[in-house]
Design goal:
Four copies of one chain form a homotetramer. Chain A has 23 helices and eight strands. With 427 residues, chain A is mainly α. The first copy, chain A, has a three-stranded mixed β-sheet with strand order 3-4-7. Chain A has a three-stranded antiparallel β-sheet with strand order 5-8-6, sandwiched between helices.
């Protein structure tokens, strides 16, 4: 199978060991990813961000393929039993393709709105291990142990730590693809980094000889590649993932889903509610089949139908979503950001005075990310002369960023409240 | 308003005369374009092709903005009454943004499946001119004559031929944006061309002095820019628009819609059928409101519901579409392509023998495009020395392509028929 | 060895069989290529075109490395003795790196000005095969037969036709690199093509089973890649290689070198004349050492010194070159292009009347290229169904371009002559 | 004048006020920049880095042109006398084109090797203000005050601070072009930043109303653009400007030039020594004419000739340079970097023992840069709500980088000394 890809140019899955990719692509759970956008509602702020989890899954498998080729250039230093065999390569490619197969609609929104619903990692595992399911059957055709090994890898575990972390870790194929793809689709150029150079910089580090070594970075050539990778991630958080309009829209939809679930839990009928939502609202766990019926369109259809709900706040919220009269934000700085309760109280008083439900129409949104935390899993830097060193020791930039947390604190509120709240907050 | 765009980088609509863009963007008919993919089902073959008509509309307005800036560098040679005034600029920007506002779901598929339904050009005009509609109201706020002028421009007519053709012509802002955008999203690099250079190459040609002159191309610098533009279009047709999987999927969906309409016309109830479809199936014209309820999701939902239709062929077709067991193609060459009837007959006999409806499961698909036809509307080439010349005279490439027709003739058929038909056709 | 390259991003020559590349790079004849620009005087018209034959040699070796990797994905279909062994890979990489090692200064200018001087192919062979030379020694270190095998490959011959043609043929690694590199450096975007896709499209065709098969193109996926490759070449000829200012400057320098040689042949002393020039002027063949002293700087230094020559035309020409008062061009069309003698006569009469040497100050320049000629060496198109077909049969574009010749006929003349000649030529 | 540029695509200098660009380009001092590479000897480490100061000068003028267009979108807020008039635009374009016109050969190498020689800023001013020179004449043709105004701007001074700093400041058109151009030519992708977005982010800040305001950055949209710009600079320093091979080669050439000058000062004749060097070696100031004869080729020719010098160290150094047996480096860390004297002493002892001049064959190289220092000239961040804020206050990244210094401390030494010195330094 050969495919055009806007990010990597050419995707070719033609070797014997990559045949698993086209086979898995045919399954309904993977095809379902075509109907889930990678970035949820981000296209409201970045009109190009329409790319799907399906395209990302393919791209991730491609990056894994390139990583495997690179590992094979390096693995002569390892004992035979620690090398990349064909079986391991096929496991890794399958895991890369399937790493997000259990994702719910609208990125992380759906699961975060329904606390009772298991998270997407749970569903991924279930999709992989359900013996009657098409993914399990595609995986186990030639090798009965594969589904379990792939499920382990998807969760960042496995026989070879360097391979497991490459599926899920600081520097994994998932991140490699999504940073490039999200940057390409949004038009934010800062998300790009040099994948060729990053792969070329990989080395094997030192580790417990009883298990395989972790991956490390070559100090002479590779430092800048990993710096750029981590900065690309930081820039994407700053520009896209923490974008105020996206965060505001997410808050609204999450509130609508939670309100809808609470109506359903109270026995109120709501047209076009997805079955999985109704089940989860009652506190039960949806079946796998019910879960797999979920996609972005199903949620949008529900939100549209709920415009006619009897619950006035729910109906209002859904109408606002549909007509794009999105919540606005007020960013809090300094003291207000450190202790936002006062600002929230002030804003909710304004909402109350305006006759709006203060919990729904005024919300606090704290977005946080630590661009680089140098924990045990972070790659070290190796060089032919001298011992391995930590990234923060060697890198001018990472030394100054390690452990630092990027944080945005915002009031998210109905647009008609912004000016009154601003005035009420002014000293 | 400033936006990131993956194709043009930065879209800025901040000047006085471009304020119309954000205003029109707010209207529901323009927002609806977010829910219609630019390339219909093409993402089945090119997983990146998820971009929407909304993003394309914005990009088209951006190209128009750049074109207007270029025209103003040139228009000193024209009499005052032929220049780009602020009013004309606002008309042109509005027309660029709205040129496709009446588009139906799934690119051209929907309208082509329902012969009784007016084409999207009709609906665009109606959206622009319906006095109670939000687009008309946004347009006419400051200038009662604007809706009509914009509607004229959208149809390639208007006071200034050079501006009218820039909205709809051989070298229009619509094409400029969609070629670049489709290339970017599919990953097909051949669709790119040099927009900067093309704009810089524009000149005013000679025309009837009573009206404004048409645009022309500067011979010394611009020839290659227009060659590349026309080749980019050719390459996109070859690679993307005529792609066999896309064409096959389109045939299936078109058949399903036509069968659905015929069921509805016969009074058979079909769940989740869009109202506009039911109305058109009866031979009536849907109301504008009914038409605007259509989007891609509405059609996919119908196709999904029709899997349970009582009409067995319709149900089968919809199930095949959903499970991606798409029709396959056999390309016909030479004699077979020139007179495909024999091949169609042979294939339909095979279908009949297999118990499949021959008209539905075997179809003939002839895709044709003339990459460059040098009609009266084609720009001419001007130079300071010597008279204007036709493109085909001056260009090595275009001289060899003018009037030539690219044509692909294919049998499109159910996958289980391909091998038997191939055998039956073999000499 | 790992290097940054502006065209390919990352050049890595780290495998066992690519160690030859850094070893050969150290030799003085290869280092000399740093001092010869790839495009001669083209930077007069395209200020970015400063890239050297050294960078091109490296890039060509990189493309060969990628081609070898692709061939190894395919070569299982071949008998063992026709496959890409390590020895053959090292031969091919060496040949790619060294293919232009005998190039003279200023691209093809120097050798074309001195008919008695052997062409660069001769010097390449001599550099490879001179037993006392550093290139021969680097090549023969591990394998005494290598210099001869590499020399054969550089000339497009060798045991395996598919490998020999990849060094020098319609679709060779030299062209692949220079088209991309020249496009990158000049800023002409039309020269780019999709190298990944092109490599992926390669197949083995059918051939005499006694020798290895030629390379062919996969019809389903690869047609557009080869079309784009050939069009990129055409565009580069139209835009860059046939650029009027470049051609004019080349004519001037060629005339100056020829006049200088004729002075030297007549025994006139000329300061700073390169020894190889003086020897060739006498009709003798320079030694290899003398030839290798030539580079761009040596020629520029001579031209600068000759401004003070006693020969007035030579001195004038050199002064014009240095002060960039370059010759201008008048392009001839139609009848004038078909029979340019009349135009040349008219122009030379004008020159004579102005007291200028008519042969030097008026020249005829006919630039011609056949973008695609479908000879025996052109790759054919293969597909799993049906026989191999010729490119012109299958490709809409190439069918219309095959055998067609692009031609530019121009008068090249001193700037002060252009207007008078234009007037004299006007009907 | 329209030109292709590999960095910006299209350079067009066609408006009335940009006519100065082609006029100045014709002058010999500007043409001389074609013969000086932008990055000196960097092409030894990055084979693509052959771009010239001439191409950079053109690119800088182009960025200025775009900046002027942006300023004109903003300048309505200013009183008339502070706006961008045609006269000021022409001054600014001229200054951008000419900002480096006095540069010596091999980037900063030449002037740093000859302490007595005035720096390039001096020569730029002299070239601009010498009444008999072609640049002065081109500038003063229409406006006698222009040469002086342009000279002021080149030195970062002028009537309008926002314009003066745009020629020479933290965020100037020089940096904008060279970062992009150096990144493009070396193939280091990290040097790219988003010029469109940066320009769009500019605002006028607050300043003394008696003079024009400085430029500022829009906080909502522009922060990331300035962050990326400053990081691009940091990455270029890390990767390219501080590259060990480049630094080592620069040290060698600087030593050779200094040794050559000292020989000349001592009255030793050295073939092919540039006149300006001989004059400066005697402690005199070369004439402008002598200075303008300098270019890269002149220096390389001298170094080549000096291989036959009687001074054995000078001859050896020149031979090493030519045969690319470049000095190697040992990077010093921690304590060794803080107090490098011990390492230098140890290394020089090793050199002495090996019979090599310790001062020449062992050198200490400390490369330092402060990527972002928030002095009075740094732009501030403005937003519609709240007061202007400093970059380090608002930016997560710049807050952590402000005032921090990147530093590389290295021993640079003859290759045969590296291993012995490493051993001698080992604890």
């Amino acid at each position: 199978m050969i495919l055009r890809d806007p990010v990597h140019g050419l995707l070719a899955f033609e070797s014997e060991e990559s045949r698993c990719v086209p086979r898995l692509l045919q399954t309904e759970p993977v095809q379902r990813l075509r109907r889930i956008k990678q970035l949820g509602v981000t296209s409201l702020a970045f009109p190009g961000a329409e790319h799907t989890r399906f395209a990302h899954a393919l791209g991730t498998a491609h990056v894994m393929q390139r990583l495997l080729a690179r590992l094979r250039e390096l693995h002569d230093e390892l004992p035979y039993w620690q090398r990349v065999t064909s079986e391991r390569a096929e496991d890794a490619l399958s895991a890369a393709l399937l790493h997000d197969v259990g994702h719910g609609p609208l990125s992380h929104l759906f699961e975060s709105a329904l606390p009772a619903l298991p998270h997407h990692e749970h569903w991924s595992t279930e999709i992989l291990l359900e013996p009657s399911g098409p993914v399990f059957q595609a995986l186990s055709r030639a090798d009965a142990g594969r589904p379990m090994r792939v499920a382990e890898l998807v969760n960042g575990r496995g026989e070879l730590p360097y391979l497991a972390r490459a599926v899920s870790g600081v520097l994994d194929v998932d991140r490699c693809d999504y940073l490039l793809r999200d940057a390409h689709a949004t038009g934010v150029r800062y998300g790009a980094f040099d994948l060729d150079w990053l792969l070329q910089s990989l080395r094997f580090g030192e580790g417990d000889p009883a298990v395989a070594p972790p991956l490390a970075i070559d100090g002479a050539k590779g430092l800048v590649a990993i710096e750029e990778f981590l900065l690309a991630r930081l820039f994407m958080f700053q520009q896209v993932y923490f974008h105020k309009s996206t965060r505001a829209a997410e808050r609204m939809i999450k509130s609508a889903l939670a309100l809808g679930a609470s109506c359903l839990a109270d026995g109120v009928a709501l047209d076009d509610s997805p079955r999985a939502l109704a089940v989860a609202a009652r506190g039960d766990r949806p079946s796998l089949g019910e879960y797999l019926e979920l996609d972005d369109a199903v949620v949008w259809q529900a939100l549209r139908a709920w415009e006619r709900a009897s619950h006035p706040v729910l109906a209002d919220l859904c109408r606002r979503i549909r007509s794009r009269s999105l919540y606005k934000t007020i960013e809090l700085f300094d003291e207000d950001a450190a202790r936002p309760e006062r600002a929230v109280d002030v804003a909710r008083d304004v909402a109350r005075a305006a006759g709006l439900d203060p919990e729904v129409y005024v919300q606090l949104d704290v977005a946080e990310d630590t661009p680089f935390s140098e924990d045990a899993a972070a790659p070290v830097v190796v060089s032919p002369h001298g011992p391995p060193r930590r990234l923060s020791e060697v890198s001018f930039l990472l030394g100054r960023l390690a452990g630092e947390t990027l944080s945005k604190t915002r009031l998210v509120l109905a647009p008609e409240l912004r000016e009154p709240v601003r005035r009420a907050l002014a000293p």
